[in-house]
Amino acid sequence: MFNLILFGPPGSGKGTQSEKLIEKYGLKHLSTGDLLRSEIANQTALGLEAKKIMDKGHLVPDEVVIGMISSAMEQHPNAKGFLFDGFPRTASQAEALDKLLALNNEEIAVMLALEVGEEELVKRLMKRGETSGRSDDTNESVIRARIVEYLQKTTAVADYYHTFDKVKLIKGEGTIDEIFSALCKEIDEKL
Ligand code: B4P
């Protein structure tokens, strides 16, 4: 199995690049953002609770997202590998993911971390908000709150994987194809 984490702040292009990567490498895409938005669309109890938190730009509790990822992994026992997008976002989520993978003698091969400046992130998300219908993309103060959450809680995840020498930094500004090539180069070196 080849398991990789696509990491970066909100709007750094994780979702955009994930679509291209899963097509090229045949990995199973697991995006906690997509899983949460599907719960919201289906108006489940979990989704209704999560929406209130996401609309403030905050992170959904660890136990909720870990539970979602665990059951999504169980549903794909024959996957060639997983691409984790937007997960883990806290150090606890990272530890839980390592434990889940270890149950099957698996591990994370690499974390690819997209680096994008704050003003570019805000610009991209405001632009996406014009068409996406995502309530967390329409308000600049919510977008900035998401970036603060990232700086306060999520950057610790990169520190965690740094200790295992698994982090590769990728310039996340430029054309989508340029960034995709840089990501593929790192993956091909690990395969
Ligand atoms: P997510 O759904 O993970 O998404 P995101 O961080 O908003 O964006 P992403 O980086 O995927 O950006 P995209 O490619 O779309 O999170 C949403 C919320 O869910 C979180 O705030 C949180 O509340 C909750 N959540 C999710 N996972 C969680 C977890 N593990 N724990 C707790 N809470 C969790 O790109 C953005 C825009 O930029 C797009 O419009 C795209 O077209 C554009 N773009 C992409 N690449 C570009 C490029 N190279 N140049 C110009 N524009 C580009």
Describe the protein's architecture and organization.
The chain contains eight helices and five strands. The chain has a single domain, classed as P-loop containing nucleotide triphosphate hydrolases (Rossmann fold, 3-Layer(aba) Sandwich). It is an alpha/beta fold and 191 residues long. The chain is 58% helix and 12% strand. 34% of the residues are buried. The model has no long low-confidence stretch (mean pLDDT 96). The site of BIS(adenosine)-5'-tetraphosphate has 25 residues, from α1, α2, α6 and α8.
**CATH architecture identity:** 3-Layer(aba) Sandwich
How large a portion of the residues is in β-strands, by DSSP E? 5-15%
How many helices? The count is 8
Spans of 5+ residues with little confidence (pLDDT < 50)? Answer: none
- Give the helices and strands as they follow along the chain: EHEHHHEHEHHEH
Rounded to an integer in angstroms, the radius of gyration calculated over CA atoms is: 16 Å
Indicate the structural class: alpha/beta
The tally of domains stands at: 1
Strand order of the largest sheet: 2-3-1-4-5
- Mean residue pLDDT: 96
The largest sheet is: 5 strands, parallel
How many runs of DSSP E, i.e. beta strands? 5
How would you describe the shape? globular
CATH superfamily: P-loop containing nucleotide triphosphate hydrolases
Main CATH class: Alpha Beta
Helix content: 55-70%
Any idea of the CATH topology?
Answer: Rossmann fold
Distance between the termini: 10 Å
Bound molecules: BIS(adenosine)-5'-tetraphosphate
